[in-house]
Specification:
The protein folds into two domains: about 1-115, Aminotransferase class 4, branched-chain amino acid transferase, N-terminal domain (D-amino Acid Aminotransferase, Chain A, domain 1, 2-Layer Sandwich); about 120-279, D-amino Acid Aminotransferase, Chain A, domain 2 (Alpha-Beta Barrel). The chain is about 30% helix and about 30% strand. It has helices at about 20-25, 45-55, 65-80, 120-125, 150-160, 205-215, 225-230, 265-279, and strands at about 1-5, 10, 30-35, 40, 85-90, 110-115, 130-135, 165-170, 175-180, 180-185, 190-195, 220, 235-240, 245-250, 255. Bound molecules: N-(5'-phosphopyridoxyl)-D-alanine (PDD).
Length: about 280
C-alpha cells in the first residue's frame, strides 16, 4: 500500500513519524475519512470544508487550500491499484519538544492512506445491526474531527463488548450521535435528525441524507430527539462515509420496528446510491 507522508509517497511499512509528533504525544491533530467510488472522491468539497473547520477549531494553519488538496488527493487516488477507496487523511501540529502550548514554527505533519472501501452488502443492509445506548461523556467540541478519539474508542467498545456494532449516545436525555457515526430515527414516515451543533460531528453522509430528503419531499424534522423517541422509533439508522446508511434493528437487545431494514431506509439508500454514481 502506497501512503503519502509530508510530500512523499512510500510503502506503508516505510512511513515513519518522529515520536515527538504532537499527534502521537498529545492527540493534537485532525482528520478526514473520504469515500472514493470508482476513483471519484465523493463530496470532496464538503470534506475539505469540514477539514478547514476542524483546523480552525484547533487553531491549526491548514497547510493547503481546497484547490491544492484536491490536486494532491486526486493524484493520491490515482496511485492506488483499487478503484473504491476509504481515504484517510490526517494533519497534526507537527514535531516539537513536548509542551501542551502550541510550538513556535512547527510544520504540520500530513499523512494519507487508502484502504479498499468495504460498504455494507445488501444482505447486511437488510438485516441491520445491533446497537446499545450509553451516556455521551465527550467534550463540548464534538464538531471538530479530532484525532483525539479516546472517548469515542471507549464508547464504541461498550457496543462491541455487548456483541453490538454501535453505541447510540445520549446527553441530558437527548440523542447526539453514534460513537463513530450519525444516527437518524423514523416515526410515522417522518425522518427525525438531531440538530447539527457542537455536540455532534457534522457528518457528510448526514448532510447528504438531509439534502436528499428535502430534494425528494421525504418528511423530515431536524430537532432535538429524546431518548423516549429513539426507543419508540419505527426505524433507526446509522450513517457514515464507510457504512453509508445502515439500519439499526436491535437496541439494547430489543427489536427496532419490524426488525429488518425499513421502507424509509430503503428509499434513502436508493437515493444515496444514485448520488454516488453522479457525484
Ligand atoms: N467516522 N460521528 C462520528 C463521531 C464519526 O466518527 C463519524 C465518521 C461520523 C459520520 O461522518 P461522515 O458521514 O462524514 O463519515 C459521525 C469515520 C468514518 C471514522 O472515524 O472512521
Amino acid at each position: 500500500m502506497t501512503v503519502y507522508l509530508n510530500g512523499e509517497y512510500m510503502p506503508i511499512g516505510e512511513a515513519r513519524v518522529p515520536v515527538l509528533d504532537r499527534g502521537f504525544l498529545l492527540g493534537d491533530g485532525v482528520y478526514e475519512v473520504i469515500p472514493v467510488y470508482g476513483r471519484h472522491a465523493f463530496r470532496l468539497e464538503q470534506h475539505l470544508l469540514r477539514l478547514q473547520n476542524s483546523c480552525d477549531g484547533i487553531r491549526l494553519d491548514n497547510p493547503h487550500n481546497a484547490a491544492a488538496w484536491t490536486t494532491l488527493i486526486q493524484d493520491f487516488i490515482g496511485r492506488q491499484d483499487f478503484a473504491n477507496q476509504n481515504l484517510y487523511l490526517q494533519l497534526t501540529r507537527g514535531v516539537a519538544k513536548r509542551d501542551h502550548a502550541f510550538p513556535q514554527g512547527a510544520t504540520p505533519t500530513i499523512f494519507m492512506m487508502a484502504n479498499p472501501l468495504v460498504t455494507p452488502t445488501p444482505e447486511q443492509f437488510e438485516a441491520g445491526v445491533a446497537a446499545v445506548s450509553t451516556t455521551d461523556n465527550r467534550w463540548q467540541r464534538c464538531d471538530i474531527k479530532s484525532i483525539a478519539l479516546l472517548a469515542n474508542v471507549l464508547l464504541r467498545q461498550i457496543a462491541v463488548d455487548a456483541g453490538a456494532t454501535e453505541s447510540i449516545l445520549f446527553r441530558d436525555g437527548y440523542m447526539t450521535e453514534g460513537a463513530a457515526s450519525n444516527i437518524f430515527a423514523v416515526k410515522g414516515g417522518t425522518i427525525l435528525a438531531p440538530l447539527r451543533n457542537h455536540l455532534m460531528l457534522p457528518g457528510i453522509t448526514y448532510d447528504t441524507v438531509i439534502e436528499l430528503a428535502r430534494a425528494n419531499n421525504v418528511p423530515l424534522e431536524v430537532r432535538e430527539i429524546s431518548e423516549a423517541e429513539v426507543r419508540a422509533a419505527d426505524e433507526l439508522w446509522l450513517t457514515s462515509s464507510t457504512k453509508e446508511i445502515l439500519p439499526i434493528t436491535r437496541l439494547d437487545g430489543r427489536v427496532v420496528g419490524s426488525g429488518t431494514a425499513g421502507p424509509v431506509a430503503r428509499r434513502m439508500l436508493a437515493l444515496y446510491q444514485g448520488l454516488k454514481r453522479t457525484g
